[in-house]
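Researcher: I'm preparing a figure for a lab meeting and need a structural model of a single chain. I don't have an experimental structure, so a prediction will have to do for now. The sequence is pasted below. Please return the structure as tokens so I can convert it later.
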Amino acid sequence: MKPKVLIIVSNANTIGSNNRRTGTFLPEVAHPYAEFEKADFQIDFASLTGESPFLDALNLADDPENLKFLTGKGWENMHSAPKLSEVDVNNYDAVFIPGGLAPMVDMPENTELKKVIAEVYERNGVVGAVCHGPVSLLNVKLSDGTYLVNGKNIASFTTEEEDSYARADVPFDLQTALTEQGAIFHAAEPWSANSITDGNLVTGQNPASAKGVGEKMVALLESKNS
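Model: Understood. Here is the structure written out token by token.
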């Protein structure tokens, strides 16, 4: 059986007091999607509300993987993604949460999302997230009451990157929040590729890290499937 990956996306389209337009950052979903597709995995989507999600960074559509996602099945399937609570997550070997500023709006406290991530992680499934996507890992508690990120090697969008990107728009600093819940945070140079595997958890720092997160998730899933 080929592995099955569920990509979980935000439904937010604005953030902050200035109503900055946002969504899922195109390369952060398209590049991992391309890696899953090359590995011939089954790829499905879910969103938090079941409404059509939004994409950000459409100005990057000339990138080959981004364009393929937009014109192929990727965006079509993401656009019609069912509501997460209506998906049987037990059918999936992995979940992946792409970034963009949108997850900072509706993912920090979403109880269904936290439950899904904990369940997948505790049954030895793979959990991946990139850039602002690791906000989905915040407040996820395991069955022993500990935070999932506690003691885990984690990468996400950094404080330094946020200072030059969206500091005025985000509700809190992601690097700080992850660290406060016990994450061992790994920050590389701003905007450089940086993805990390810790057990069944794969995280990446920024858009440049999305491909690496996809590759590392593929490697984990193929090793489990062999």
